[in-house]
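User: Structure please.
Assistant: Input sequence and predicted structure:
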Amino acid sequence: MTQTPKQTIMVAGSGSWGTAISIILSQNGHHVRMWGRNKEYIEEIKHSRINRIFLPMVKLPEDITLTSNVQEAVDGANLFVNAIPTQYIRPALREFMEKKVDAKIPIVSLSKGIENETMLRGSQIFKEVLGSQCIGVLSGPSHAEEVCLGMPSSVVFASRDADFANQMQDIFMTPTFRVYTNLDIIGVEVAGALKNVIALAAGMCDGLKFGTNSKSALLTRGLVEMTRFGLALGGKQPTFGGLAGIGDLITTCFSPYGRNRAVGEKIAQGQTLENILKSMDMVAEGVWTTKSVYSLARIHEVDMPITSEIYKILYEGKLVKKALIDLMSRAKRSEEEN
């Protein structure tokens, strides 16, 4: 593995993925500062070295600095890693802008969603708010609970700048965390966002006690929707057959850690979306991404039958079983049409 100079890296976000990626970077010898907005909770983690709410199964290395102070987080940092959910990136960036974050600092986004108000992906939000030019996205099948325990995982780093992608590959890769590169940042971000929508449907299959036939068919047709939508937005087809696409889709739809899958399961069991979200500490990005994808699909005239039914269940009160009937009774067609 190529040796790269040790970096001073700010990780914005103290949830499960921000914590896991901080551990990865620390293991590679980088100087890591993990920032979170909740001062009391950050102080708790600082003293216990355990992220009790989001990642309780692992102790944070002593050399990871924990702070709720924006100035302390950004001073001297030469890499900005964002682990804040998409819908909360913009409000958080206002705090960083007050501290005059250097627009030249490279950005790595871990977010998997599309902003509701603007329909922008994470990398686009950073470019719009901070004027950032050097931006990349790390995505793929990588539940934090498994990554932090050293279970073998593979992800993809996407950027239009091949040199930057290669540099980040060296910075993030460990013996148990393999990083591939990809120039298709649109496809990688779209795939990461869309798989969360399909995961809601997968959870509904689980909530209805369906079997592997049902879920396998859902994932297959869901991948068709993801690809169709991604191509309409400028992504490349091979990306959706890779780690950010089918790889992350499989993990999210089958893993017990999948929060979007869990939300879908509870909805199918009769719980209301409002009560489910109130009971959660973590963010299920698919709930908000469904809104954005539904709107964008209509703008770009992309056929998204699964996404449309998920939207109607979440936001129009449609019953899960009625949505299933409507999906299964659609007009006949050839698989070759996609």
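The mean pLDDT is 94.
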